Amino acid sequence: MHRRTFLAVLSSAPVALAACAAGADEQSQGRSTEPAFEVTKTDAEWRKLLTKDQYQVLRKHGTERAGSSPLDAEHRPGTFHCAGCDLPLYASQTKFDSRTGWPSFTAPLPNAIGTSVDRSLFGERTEVHCRRCGGHLGHVFDDGPRPTGKRYCMNGAALIFKPQGA
């Protein structure tokens, strides 16, 4: 690196630091970049409402161990709801055996989910969350069966199954 380039980079550092500090200050004043959801609760309220596994998945973006959810083997007619706010998310007709160890679906119900970019593991994935409470559900991939070609790979801990007619 040339001395002139080094000095130019060095002189721009205070500007970059000031910008970072302003962003941190904005968040400390309650102006978050996180989206607002219809159902919001404090961390303490979520902890009281959810089981330990549900809390870890829905609120902390965790992933349950493959094959650990009984919902992976659930094949009765019904609907899979968000464990955090009870929003219907997936119809049982869209569930399929992906052989991954997690409940998988070809499509969500209308206006049930939201997505965001997840860069947490050496690349980019599409995260799926409940559109009403923001709870982390899982990820969607482009390797599913027809008709959509999508595989909505969900954590069973994030879901509650309600049999048809119940």
How would you describe this structure to a colleague?
The protein is an alpha+beta fold and 166 residues long. It has 2 domains: 33 residues; 121 residues, Peptide methionine sulfoxide reductase (Metal Binding Protein, Guanine Nucleotide Exchange Factor, Chain A), CATH 2.170.150.20. It is built from 3 helices and 9 strands. The strands form 2 sheets. The protein has a 6-stranded antiparallel beta sheet, with no helix packed on it. It has a 3-stranded antiparallel beta sheet with strand order 2-1-9, with no helix packed on it. The chain starts with a helix and ends with a strand. The N terminus is likely disordered.
Nutshell version of this structure?
With 166 residues, the chain is α+β, with helices and mostly antiparallel strands. The protein has three helices and nine strands; from the N terminus they run αααβββββββββ. The N and C termini lie far apart (70 Å).
Relevant terms:
single chain, 166 residues, alpha+beta, Metal Binding Protein, Guanine Nucleotide Exchange Factor, Chain A, 2 domains, six-stranded antiparallel sheet, three-stranded antiparallel sheet, 3 helices, 9 strands, disordered N terminus
In CATH terms, what is the architecture of the largest domain? Beta Complex
Distance between the termini: 70 Å
What is the domain total for the residues? 2
Largest sheet properties: 6 strands, antiparallel
Low-confidence stretches: 1-32
Shape: globular
* CATH secondary-structure class of the largest domain: Mainly Beta
The counted number of beta strands is 9
Output the radius of gyration.
20 Å
Number of helices: 3
Question: What would the CATH topology of the largest domain be?
Answer: Metal Binding Protein, Guanine Nucleotide Exchange Factor, Chain A
Could you state the CATH homologous superfamily of the largest domain?
Peptide methionine sulfoxide reductase
